[in-house]
Amino acid sequence: MNFQNTRRRGEDGVAMVINFLLSNARLVLGVGGAAILGIATLAVKRLIERAGRAADDEKVEQKITESWEELSLVSASPTLIQREIEGVVINHVAKTTKQQKADLCQPQKSNCDSKPKKLQLCALTLQERLQQFYCTRAALDPQEVQRAQALALDICTEVHGFLHSRHPDMPLEEMSIGGSLLDNLQVICADHACLLVPLQLEASLWRLVPGEETLLTHPLHWMVRRLNIEYFPRGRSYWDRYLVGGYLSSEALVNWFNKAVMETVNWPTIGSSMDCLIRPALGGSDLRLEISPLDENGSESGDQPVFVTILPLLREGDVVLTAQPELTSPWVNAWHLSLYPWETRRLVELDAADNGCRIKTLKILKAVCRLNHALRPMEAAPLVNLILHLSDRESDWSDSSLDVRFQQCITELIGYLEQGALHSHFKPAVNLLNSLSEDQVDQMGFMLYCAVSEPEILLV
After folding, report:
1. 313 and 364: one domain?
2. Do 370 and 314 share a domain, yes or no?
3. Which residues of 304-349 form beta strands (DSSP E)?
4. Is the domain of 259 the same as that of 400?
5. What is the rounded distance in angstroms from the CA atom of residue 351 to the CA atom of residue 236?
6. Coiled-coil regions in this chain (predicted)?
7. C-alpha to C-alpha distance for 58 and 90, rounded to whole angstroms
8. Is the N end or the C end of the chain the one with fewer CB atoms within 10 Å?
């Protein structure tokens, strides 16, 4: 094929061949064969494109070698073939081919017009792309953050006033707003916050029992035991009404908050005073409010709603236990040990010590996972611990090494997915990938394998 004189015709021919092969691959070759063919045709297509663009370049042979290395890398996971991921591969190839056809069908501009754009695109390094992605996608607009925080604080004031007037004898510490919104770790949009409701326990009547010392033997499932009940009978503490089997039940407490706050508070009236529509969010066991701004006509403005989760918790020293039955089910007495304060504090300390880019890297990874369908099941906790583990081995976290650390995080995450385990930095017995299914692991692994050679595909 003469790439110098018939490049456009050659690209169109490649697209037609790819479309024909993929449309008949599953019928002729079956599931596994279609997946292999999809990967192979994608790599061959890239090989031809690179060879065509570099016909007069002395590095043609090197580019061809890189293309075949991509083919061997992507094809190196037989588990993906066995899991029938041919749909992912074929969709990826078909989407690329369709876009190529659309580009070829558009009127071609002169070389003087198109060449500077190509040069400008190619001039962007991975470091520049990461900085651009952080500024446009990961970092939030300060006004948007301020608006979400103001809404969350208004809800905090209303809930505090309601509990103080209706249940004045309930021993509570000062309520506050917490979570990623307050710690500047939220990405894409400022859409959720936590209303922390700390309970006040009598030290002589209650003891927080670590998960390893309970029958559950789970390091994150703690229990709160009632003490000296023979000397201080039931009823001495306000929280005795939520006792189940001698332990303070997080599920019973959440059920009470659901009835006393979520279902009793006049949210429509409060919402009208805040120019918002406030309603309890359905479809979960957590105490969550959805706040939608209203326009001048009193209708929903269409802006991103803000979700505020009411979170009862217990504090003792640096231990924070939260009442989250969705995390501790089916154990009605279990409380969840939150590692979020420890992890966040450690990241801030490390970055402050060397003016590092750990938090920036974390926010980029969180934004990538949220925007990429295959990576969406990856939660924030594994990404935080990924960076903490990497910080134990790598000392250079300067802003100039952002691209190196980003690529290293991708490689490290692939290794953890292959092992099926990413252990918590503070609680090594906890596997943070335990909630992922095998199909989710395979899809994430495939996407990250592709990103090893072309990390830019994660920044689209």
Report:
1. no
2. no
3. 306-316, 319-322, 335-337
4. no
5. 47
6. none
7. 33
8. C
Q: Which residue has the higher pLDDT, 165 or 122?
A: 165
The pTM assigned to this predicted structure is 0.74
Domain-located, residue 256: yes
Structural domains in the chain (count): 2
Kind of pairing between the strands at 287-293 and 206-209: unpaired
Q: Is the peptide bond before 330 cis (omega within 30 degrees of 0)?
A: yes
Distance of alpha carbon 225 from alpha carbon 205, whole angstroms: 8
Please check whether residues 146 and 265 belong to one and the same domain.
yes
Q: What are phi and psi of 427, to 5 degrees?
A: -130, 85
Q: What is the DSSP string of 189-251?
A: S--EEEEEEEB---TTTEEEEPGGGSTT--TTEEEEEE--TTTS-TTSSGGGGGEETTEE-HH
Residues 261, 385, single domain; the answer is no
Tokens of 213: 């010392």
- Tokens matching residue 177: 């707003």
CATH code (residue 310)? 3.30.460.90
Q: Which domain holds residue 374?
A: 341-458
Q: Flag whether 59 is in a domain.
A: no
Average pLDDT over residues 116-144: 81
Q: What is the pLDDT of residues 276-298, one digit of tens each?
A: 999 998 767 789 999 998 877 77
